[in-house]
């Protein structure tokens, strides 16, 4: 039987539209049965275009449908908590695009609700499912780098064009500590575990004067295991001549760097201490075959495949609701550090019935 899927926050130009790609993947068993957005004129035409019979501007109607078991949430960041809560309380499994929420209180509430209702929850962190970062994780898990000592990750993005087709980011405004920096924070947590302490700086760029809050950030991170890392998020800059995203991992046996440039593919460079020539080994990752919204079509397919496997085999998704909460907690601590000028401890005491996962 197909997995009934509903999407909250969908239109032809946002991440929610990637759900329409799933029906063309032979090993996926999702059936898109309902969609929700706030503009009925656009939504009705889009529903007809993609062949979906049920559409609504009221997310409560969507989550109450008996034929839908999974709700995918691609609405603006500040609405994620409201939409996730309604879906969880209706007994639905959740896929929520990053950031999971934008406050510590909402993060704790989602953790509690997921535990209470026994549903599965995946945070759609596309960076974890990009080819180059999947390759890095395999090398890391195989022990090729030895013990990790230091790491670095960044996500830089000139947001001015993005504001043109997602004006809510200016109007709300979107908090880019969560909507942006959560990318490098999550990928560093994927390698190093829980962040213990943050010392952060933030400033407001001058390219988008109508954006009212800070939008360029540096975070120094100390992890519970004693390792240190840096996360950089720059969003009011002229895009530099460098990849949009990059991760650097420095270990006792080697160093590796992976990067991603929108839909143009990426690469992993690896230098092992045992290499006599001292020349890096480079692994090119080809461009994704799908270049739909933001070039993330294939990464969404990968995390939806992972989620399907978790549903079919009763496994816990990764990143799960606790991972999402812990990344939000880093952002909350970073804002406090920016305001106080001092290092701030990160709240990590989120618990589920099977404890926490890295």
Shape: globular
Low-confidence blocks of residues:
353-358
Helix proportion range: 25-40%
The overall pLDDT, averaged over residues, is 92
CATH topology of the largest domain: Dihydrodipicolinate Reductase, domain 2
Radius of gyration: 20 Å
SSE order: EEHEHEHEHEHEHHHHEEEEEEEHHE
Quote the distance from N terminus to C terminus: 32 Å
Strands of the widest sheet, in order across it, are 14-13-12-11-7-10-9-8-15
- Spell out the CATH superfamily of the largest domain: Dihydrodipicolinate Reductase, domain 2
**Largest sheet features:** 9 strands, mixed
Secondary structure tally, helices: 11
- Percent range for β-strand residues: 25-35%
Question: What would you say the CATH architecture of the largest domain is?
Answer: 2-Layer Sandwich
Count the beta strands: 15
Number of domains: 2
């Amino acid at each position: 039987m197909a997995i009934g899927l509903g999407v909250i926050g969908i239109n032809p130009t946002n991440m929610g539209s990637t759900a329409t790609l799933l029906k063309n993947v032979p090993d996926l068993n999702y059936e898109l049965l309902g969609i929700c957005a706030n503009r009925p004129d656009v939504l009705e035409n889009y529903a007809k275009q993609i062949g979906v019979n049920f559409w609504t501007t009221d997310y409560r109607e969507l989550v109450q449908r008996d034929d839908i078991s999974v709700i995918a949430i691609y609405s603006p960041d500040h609405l994620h908590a409201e939409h996730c809560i309604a879906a969880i309380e209706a007994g639905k499994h959740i896929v929520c695009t990053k950031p999971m929420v934008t406050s510590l209180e909402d993060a704790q509430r989602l953790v509690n609700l997921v535990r209470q209702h026994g549903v599965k929850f995946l945070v759609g962190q596309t960076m974890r499912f990009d080819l180059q970062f999947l390759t890095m994780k395999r090398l890391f898990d195989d022990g090729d780098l030895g013990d990790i000592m230091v790491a670095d990750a960044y996500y830089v993005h000139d947001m001015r064009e993005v504001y043109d087709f997602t004006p809510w980011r200016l109007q709300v405004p979107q908090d880019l500590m969560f909507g942006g920096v959560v990318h490098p924070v999550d990928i560093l947590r994927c390698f190093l575990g829980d962040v213990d302490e943050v010392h952060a700086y933030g400033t407001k760029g001058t390219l988008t004067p109508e954006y009212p809050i800070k939008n360029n950030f540096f975070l120094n991170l100390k992890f519970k295991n004693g390792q240190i890392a840096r996360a950089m998020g720059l969003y009011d800059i002229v895009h530099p001549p460098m990849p949009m995203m990059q991760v650097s991992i420095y270990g006792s046996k080697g160093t590796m760097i992976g990067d991603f440039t929108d839909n143009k593919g990426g690469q992993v460079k690896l230098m092992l201490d045992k290499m006599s020539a001292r020349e890096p080994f480079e692994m090119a990752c080809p461009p994704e075959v799908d270049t739909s919204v933001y070039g993330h079509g294939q990464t969404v397919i990968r995390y939806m495949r992972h989620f399907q496997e978790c549903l079919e085999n009763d496994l816990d998704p990764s990143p799960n609701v606790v991972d999402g909460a812990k990344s939000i907690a880093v952002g909350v601590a970073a804002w406090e550090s920016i305001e106080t000028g001092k290092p701030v401890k990160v709240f990590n005491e989120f618990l589920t019935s099977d404890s926490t996962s890295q």
